[in-house]
Amino acid sequence: MDDQLERLNRLPLRDDLRGQHPYGAPQIDVPIQLNVNENTYGVPADVQEAIVEAVREAAGGLNRYPDREFTQLREALAEYLGHGLGADQIWAANGSNEVLQQLLQAFGGPGRSVLSFPPTYSMYPLLASGTGTAYVKGEREADFGLSAASAARHVREHAPSIVILCSPNNPTGTALGLDVVEAVYAAGEQSQTVVIVDEAYAEFAHAGTASALTLLQGRPRLIVTRTMSKAFALAGARLGYLAAAPEVIDALRLVRLPYHLSAVTQATALAALRHRGALMAEVEAIKRQRDRIVTELTRLGLRPAASDSNFVFVAGFADPRRIWEGLLEAGIIVRDVGIPGSLRITAGTEAETSAFLTRLEELLAE
Ligand SMILES: Cc1ncc(COP(=O)(O)O)c(C=O)c1O
């Protein structure tokens, strides 16, 4: 045991945090970073300028606390989402991770539970442990699919306080049918289960993929979370948000820290929303690279999952560790999510994707 761990163990840490590991996707400075599903196209120059201008303006007022209700931002997000949503149905925080944490603070906590369906986003169990909420694992089919009947059965069996459905799912990339969301919501009626649909990657879904936003009307326990980290290329700005019934927003006001969303963050997000045309054009380019990766990996004899996101989950590697290391030697980092025989690759720019595919083909031939 190293010194630091020993010193940690001597602290009066909460018992349920002892032995836990923090979130730790490697942050390695290599030229081609395809491991944490960032937007690889960067912030377009005109959007950068608009953000700098907006932040310059905000800087003059930084002696004051920001608008605690981030009213303008909520209005802009409601307008972006559409579906007849009003600003009173929108909430935002520092990344959708913080949005999810606030939801668990409000609806989870000691004596309560959250159910999700692994393999799924690795932060769910960590958010559960941080908020003292019991984490319950549901099961997927062998191909990682999730049917309405099976998901609903898990909800009836466990009667959790919260269910998190990730659609498109990270790390597998595939979107859920809305029948799953409807069935889970109905199954949670008796237990008054709060149903969160994490749509972090929604903008990358294939045309015709319906969002759970269309189900919000008349479902006060349904919450749809989104983020500006992916489609809006703003992972560094930290802005996540959700849409739900106005009373859910009131619940979050009880747990949020005062002024949690800085004036700089609000100004940045507003500027990006005003310039979303340029950003959405990049989303289309990323989707083309994503589809190219699926086609090429299939040609190479691998088994990529159908992807509605900006990454591809691929199975069929005899030795994924060797491939991961071989790519890293060439300055390309992808993600080993710990599922045997598989890797997850974020869609890069055209040049990055070409470099990845070329190196991969060489490694497979060795
Ligand atoms: C499914 C999913 N949800 C939420 C997040 C959190 O994103 P952020 O906190 O940057 O909004 C991620 C990040 O990768 C994710 O994959």
Produce the secondary structure layout.
Blueprint: H1 3-10, E1 32-33, H2 45-59, H3 71-81, E2 90-93, H4 95-107, E3 113-116, H5 123-130, E4 134-137, H6 148-158, E5 162-166, H7 178-187, E6 194-198, E7 222-227, E8 240-243, H8 246-253, H9 263-274, H10 276-299, E9 303-304, E10 311-315, H11 320-329, E11 332-333, E12 342-346, H12 350-365
Parallel strand pairs: 1-11, 3-4, 3-5, 5-6, 6-7
Antiparallel strand pairs: 2-8, 7-8, 9-10, 10-12
Helix pairs in contact: 2-9, 3-9, 4-5, 6-7, 11-12
This protein binds pyridoxal-5'-phosphate.
How would you describe what is shown here?
The chain is an alpha/beta fold and 366 residues long. Helix content is 40%, strand content 13%. It is globular, with a radius of gyration of 21 Å. The strands form 3 sheets. The protein has a 7-stranded mixed beta sheet, with helices on both faces. A 3-stranded antiparallel beta sheet has the order 9-10-12, covered by helices on one side. It has 12 helices and 12 strands. It has 2 domains: 25-43 and 277-365, Aspartate Aminotransferase, domain 1, CATH 3.90.1150.10; 45-274, Type I PLP-dependent aspartate aminotransferase-like (Major domain) (Aspartate Aminotransferase, domain 2). It has helices spanning 3-10, 45-59, 71-81, 95-107, 123-130, 148-158, 178-187, 246-253, 263-274, 276-299, 320-329, 350-365; strands at 32-33, 90-93, 113-116, 134-137, 162-166, 194-198, 222-227, 240-243, 303-304, 311-315, 332-333, 342-346. Residues 37, 95-97, 121, 166, 170, 198, 200, 227, 229, 235, 240 line the site of pyridoxal-5'-phosphate.
